[in-house]
Design brief:
Residues 48-197 form the DUF4833 domain. It contains two helices and 13 strands. It has 202 residues and is mainly beta. The protein is globular. 24% of the residues are buried.
């Protein structure tokens, strides 16, 4: 088989397209809503799982000074595609400029620490608006005990956001249509699991 055909076949295997269930009860040591196959990474903040794509969209801390745990004020979260666990050739690639602007990117600005933030928070904090969730403002900060936290309100509870699951279906034009987004987190007060479904379209 030629190299061109091999690479084409490999691409087909690497980007399968069928329904993927949401991870809700894994054995991952950091949180049970992350797939167990993900490597341990204390700088990982939140992930997107998607029903029509096995690749994960992963947000990790981007430090200006990692030793001092100072986030980079220009770009405090890095965004990458990751395929660990379902392929023998895992990839870890940065998202493109268009993807960051339209789908998986975010806007942010430095903000003062508020009373709702853990008293163990250190350094600057940032208000963050995810492009995929524009109606829900988030707060990004470094906690000395919990690491880097993206904090949002989930079902009325101030929570650490661990994951968003995006449920889509295919339309007649083969363009994915978002049906709903599920938010998974834990309360910043008592680590109680929090969950909310946000309907997008019927």
């Amino acid at each position: 088989m030629s190299r061109e055909l091999t690479e084409k076949h490999y691409f087909t295997d690497e980007f399968p397209d069928h329904d993927y269930e949401c991870t809700t009860n894994s054995s991952h040591i950091q949180t049970s809503v992350w797939p167990a196959y993900l490597p341990i990474d204390q700088d990982r903040i939140v992930i997107f799982e998607r029903s029509k794509n096995a690749q994960l969209v992963v947000y990790t801390a981007n430090f200006r000074d990692k030793k001092r745990r100072e986030l980079d004020p220009k770009w405090p979260m890095d965004i990458k595609w990751q395929s660990f666990g379902w392929t023998d050739h895992p990839i870890n690639n940065s998202t493109g400029m268009v993807e960051r602007r339209l789908a998986w990117g975010y806007s942010h600005k430095v903000t003062e620490l508020a009373g709702s933030v853990s008293v163990e928070a250190i350094g600057a904090s940032y208000t963050v608006t995810l492009n995929a969730l524009p109606s829900r403002r988030a707060l990004l900060y470094v906690d000395t005990k919990r690491g880097v936290v993206l904090q949002v309100t989930i079902s009325g509870t101030i929570s650490r956001l661990w994951k968003m699951y995006v449920k889509t279906n295919n339309t007649a034009a083969f363009i994915p249509k978002v049906l709903y987004v599920d938010l998974y987190g834990t309360s910043v007060d008592d680590d109680r699991a929090t969950y909310e479904r946000i309907p997008i379209s019927s």
